[in-house]
Structures are given as C-alpha cells and as structure tokens.
Specification:
The protein is mostly helical. It has a domain of 33 residues. It has one helix and no strands. The chain is rod-shaped.
C-alpha cells in the first residue's frame, strides 16, 4: 500500500515537471519565432 502512494506522488511530480518543461519550451519557441520574424522584417526593410 505504501508503495503505491509513493508511485502516485512521483507520477504527480513527473507530470508537474513535464508541464513545466513544456511551458518553458513553448515560451522559448515563441521568443525565438518573434526574434526571427523581427530579424526578417529588418532584412526586408533593408532591401526596400
């Protein structure tokens, strides 16, 4: 019985970690995309 409660706790912790990783990845990806599009706009304006 004790074993199962430990497993449940570790699964909850694992889920939290995965969610945290996922949001961090999304935020970084968004920042990267925004930076790339800003650079692309700068390049486009230079060519005008």
């Amino acid at each position: 019985m004790h074993y199962w409660s430990d497993v449940t706790i570790s699964e909850a912790t694992l889920t939290e970690l995965l969610v945290e990783q996922y949001y961090t990845y999304i935020v970084r990806l968004s920042a990267s995309v925004l930076r790339d599009s800003a650079e692309a706009e700068d390049v486009a304006q230079e060519h005008l």
